[in-house]
């Protein structure tokens, strides 16, 4: 009976069972798509899905909801998944036609931008929808409201040929900056249905990181050549005045290049060894992720050069 149930269920859903584990009256089945199903042997119920995740290629895309304990991820398996950080559970999923390499929430969390591997980007409208479910139990009518997440496509734009690895909405929600491996950062007006209104084109290599200023008037970028550039928004005109740059308050800090993060770089490291950083301004803390598989905490700003060590306990700049 168990064999028939699993065979029917895997056939109907197109699943590929890769491993099984049997203990007492319960059986676990793992699939090629990173799912785990539980079957109670003596019951006739369908297998229950207890775990699922991304299942193909690389996972680059990750963003936190600005107001709720939610996280979104996207990967080469062409799916976008919304996770509850409180319940550690998947609460919504949307399948795309291309691999997803970057994601970004709008400041109010109502829109979600997806950077695709083919050089396009998609914006989804994210809404909480209440669905009414009617349950009849022994002539007792119960009304149950189920909270659902609806993700509807707003636009799908392709202005570049190479992968979109970095994108961010401006703090005021007016613009979306999209950085591609082609080199430029394109600027789109949110209220004009994402009409392109600016272009930052001084980078000679692929875009790795971007940050908006607090007033949404400036943008800083890092690229694959290790160069840090500044632009006026939304036109994309280059900014070269050191005095003006010095006084810019940034809404976020994810760029890996700049004097404020010089101390996160160990001696003799390559320009690509530090993959990501993120600053918490309120706590004056900076976190980094690197090619050595380490996550490190620093005081921010971290100005001392050559002080970052792979052993977190030996670094005087580490918390």
Automatic annotation (TrEMBL):
Q: Where exactly are the transmembrane stretches of this chain? A: none
Domain EML-like second beta-propeller residues, every copy:
59-311
Name of a matching Pfam family: Beta-prop_EML_2
Look up the domain of life of the source. Eukaryota
MF terms (GO), sorted A to Z: microtubule binding
Is Repeat tagged as a keyword? yes
Q: Which residues form a coiled coil?
A: none
Q: Where are the WD repeats?
A: 61-93, 157-188
Q: Which protein is depicted? A: Echinoderm microtubule-associated protein-like 6
Q: Which UniProt keywords apply?
A: Repeat, WD repeat
What the entry lists under PANTHER family is as follows: HELP DOMAIN-CONTAINING PROTEIN, WD-40 REPEAT PROTEIN
The keyword Protease belongs to this UniProt entry's keyword annotation: no
